[in-house]
Recover the amino acids of this structure.
């Protein structure tokens, strides 16, 4: 996919295309400022001959092929030795008849690669960092965490699984300081809500109607806006996408016909939590996986519970409307 998306099938000996090499260094490994323009040129030369087998025919077939549910096209990698530039190259201080595999080996050895990957992992799993284009000029939110992950990268021969193991068992991941510090992506928000509602206990085509809601929130799955992907963190939120997020969450969690919602309501009513404002709020927060809320959020929820109780709604309505309110909180929209 990267070969086709980044035009490396058009990267030929004597007529290099630098797109793949540039993005490999800038977006997928080292980040801006850690390589030179000459390094990009040499990377492009090293990856000449890396292409897709029978590209033109496969592209024509793909245009006609159905994508439901998975498609039938078996794209495959092909190395064309007669189209590879086997001349001497100099890349990041290393000289030789370097090929693509050797370029990747050299990239993996760089501390800048370790820190770039570590910061992405922290950004994805722990807490929002500034937008990636600002990273060369803005220090990490938690430099010690990045140092820990960087060391794990080298201690485990660049093994991402080992880095994840260190991350998930770290204090900076489990600390309360990291709670609700990361805006959920649309995909994460939609998937999390569908797990709570229990509407789909097995794959059905109707799930597409729910998954497409992510598009209105700014994330068209399998169709990023550019090779850079989606800008994450607070950039998921604007006046339009916020309304879509709140509406979807509230509508799904207030639908008492959804089996998961019905089960939650049954548990809350069953232990009597709905009979007092504070216990109703806390139990609904627990059921929806919200580990903590600010004093302001809690006050709003308890005030809503009191007002709603005054309308003489039945127990099911009281709990359902509280679930709807929780779904609209700042804390539920974050992870």
């Amino acid at each position: 996919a990267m070969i086709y998306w980044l035009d490396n099938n058009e990267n030929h000996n004597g007529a290099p295309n630098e797109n793949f090499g540039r993005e490999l260094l800038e977006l997928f490994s080292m980040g801006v400022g850690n390589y030179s323009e000459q390094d990009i040129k040499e990377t492009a030369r090293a990856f000449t001959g890396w292409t897709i087998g029978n590209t033109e025919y496969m592209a024509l077939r793909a245009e006609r092929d159905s994508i439901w549910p998975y498609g039938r096209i078996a794209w495959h990698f092909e190395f064309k030795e007669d189209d590879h530039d086997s001349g001497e190259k100099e890349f990041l201080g290393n000289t030789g008849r370097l090929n693509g595999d050797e370029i990747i080996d050299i990239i993996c050895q760089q501390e800048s690669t370790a820190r770039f990957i570590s910061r992405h992992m922290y950004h994805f799993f722990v807490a929002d960092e500034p937008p990636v284009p600002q990273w060369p000029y803005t220090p990490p939110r938690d430099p010690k965490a990045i140092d820990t992950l960087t060391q794990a990268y080298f201690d485990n021969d660049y093994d991402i699984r080992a880095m994840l193991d260190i991350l998930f068992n770290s204090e900076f991941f489990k600390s309360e300081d990291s709670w609700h510090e990361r805006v959920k992506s649309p995909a994460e928000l939609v998937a999390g809500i569908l797990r709570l509602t229990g509407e789909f206990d097995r794959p059905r085509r109707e799930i597409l109607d729910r998954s497409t809601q992510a598009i209105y929130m700014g994330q068209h799955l399998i169709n990023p806006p550019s090779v850079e992907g989606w800008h994450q963190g607070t950039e998921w939120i604007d006046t339009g996408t916020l309304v879509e997020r709140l509406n979807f969450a509230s509508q799904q969690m207030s639908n008492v016909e959804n089996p998961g919602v019905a089960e939650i309501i049954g548990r809350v009513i069953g232990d009597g939590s709905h009979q007092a404002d504070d216990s109703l709020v806390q139990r609904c927060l627990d059921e929806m996986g919200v580990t903590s809320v600010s004093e302001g959020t809690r006050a709003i929820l308890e005030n809503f519970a009191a007002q709603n109780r005054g309308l003489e709604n039945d127990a099911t309505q009281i709990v359902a409307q509280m679930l709807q309110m929780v779904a609209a909180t700042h804390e539920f929209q974050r992870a």
